[in-house]
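1st attempt posting a full record on here, be nice pls
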Amino acid sequence: MTTTTRDFRNSAEVRPIPTIVGADLSVPVRGGRLVGYANLDYAASAPCLTPVSEAVAAALPAYSSVHRGAGYASQLTTARYEQARHTVRAFVGARPSDAAVFVRNTTDATNLLARCLPEGTTVVVFETEHHASLLPWPDVVRLPAPAFPGEAVRAADEALAAVEGPALLVVTAASNVTGELWPVAALAHIAHRHGARIFVDAAQLVPHRPLNLTALDLDYVAFSGHKLYAPFGAGVLVGRPDWLTAADPYLRGGGASKAVAQQVEWCEDAEQRHEAGTPNVLGAIALAAACDALSATGWTPLVREEERLLSRLRAGLATIEGVRELGLWGPEHPRVGIVSFVVEGRTAREVAEALSAEYGIGVRDGKFCAHPFVSHLLGGLEDGRCQDGTASAVRASIGVGTAEEHVDRLVAALRELASRS
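the predicted structure (as tokens):
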């Protein structure tokens, strides 16, 4: 029997936060001991939610091809696949006319959109972006890292005012380096005031916060299943269909073609047009299951628990001499559960390897596919490594399944490592 707990302070039902697959994973540490794994690398790839694993397992017995099969299994799989599309669109608050094209990940979605830009489109993007948003565009105006959110809005305003012809503003919703939230609503307003469109990389936002594309008046958003507790190889591009239907298919092949003779007639539907070949059906089902699980839990308990753990982590790091947290807009700016930092006297790789080998803690080290941004944040280092391109940082990231003990273990381990320097 399923039970719920009740919060008598406000008489509201509280749904349990879903569990993750691998919550009881043990890993070896130096000396041969086994310890419970402290996974603090969610920003790279989040673990699988148990409801996601269950949804995939339930779909497997009737797994079949989609869209063109007459058999029962094919019809059922097609229905599940298209229902996944509806679920994902609802999860981000899409408009009724918006397309939802299933792809591999956010990088794939961004490259798809880049292929669909009208001729002569100028893309305006900040250097603080992930490489997926920096690199695919044919004609780019790259803006420097803004000193505060208002400067980001002003810089975008000035850049778009100087563009002649179609334009697209590209921005992250939450930084994959610092976790800081960007002023997406204000940037969307600026873009539309200049007749431009806006594309939002929501890969690091949607695992942590709700997103409503319609309310924010966004044109396109993209995110990845592997960051949203659905590591089955699917992502999605959601947004206005006109640019997508006017462009050549992203992939040319079966499913995208309506008729093939001397000339090829391509499907007019944006989703069919850009999903040639057999799609990743299980990936789409997994992605939708993650959306359902987070929506069913409700964002209030998820955000409340994340903010509690994030505050505990940042407060602990602040007490360690020689540890410096990286940030663009100051320590009080709102952010999701991502913290990047450096440890004086140690390379990021040394820190990450020691955390793994000695304490059973998984973090990420490097430049996080955001080289210009990390180099900007590390510009204050005095040893010159940033200038020669070798400097990097350590990133700890949290999410569903992160325990208080994981946070405390990381802080204690860093305090011990810093004392050895």
